[in-house]
Amino acid sequence: MTDVEFHFNAPDKMAYACRLLRKAAAKGSRVAVTADADFLRELDRTLWTFDPVAFVPHCVHDAPPQVRDVSPVVLCDSARSAPHAQVLINFGGEVPDGFERFERVIEVVSLDEDDKVGARRRYRHYADRGYAIARRDLVLKEA
Questions:
Q1: What domains does the chain contain, in order, with CATH numbers?
Q2: Distance of alpha carbon 82 from alpha carbon 121, whole angstroms
Q3: Distance between CA 50 and CA 55 in Å, rounded?
Q4: Distance between CA atoms of 32 and 9, rounded to whole angstroms?
Q5: Within 10 Å of residue 65's Cβ, how many Cβ atoms?
Q6: pTM recorded for the entire structure
């Protein structure tokens, strides 16, 4: 069964995304990222510039197969378009269709009240289906 984690109280989703993806890539994890198109475009740009001494190898889901197959991070319009099924990180507002094929799903939730409302709905979705859910409070972690 898929492991589900909620990382909540992210003060800046984009900055947290970059740090989380840098860490995952350094560990050798294969990560698919889902979100709305605007977030994915901004994330693609930000991953090129957020750290002046480190690069997070990544591509978009429709990159040529030879690029997509070697990229540890793939930015996807849907979980179903991901080329692998190790880790799925969702920055979107809905439960990703096809999440259950992944070993691990991470839902990232900001401090924004609308984001929290959507996260509670996604949390109930996973819980109602019997998934054990780990919670990571990012405010407590940084304190």
A1: 3-94+119-142 (3.40.50.10110)
A2: 24
A3: 9
A4: 21
A5: 8
A6: 0.94
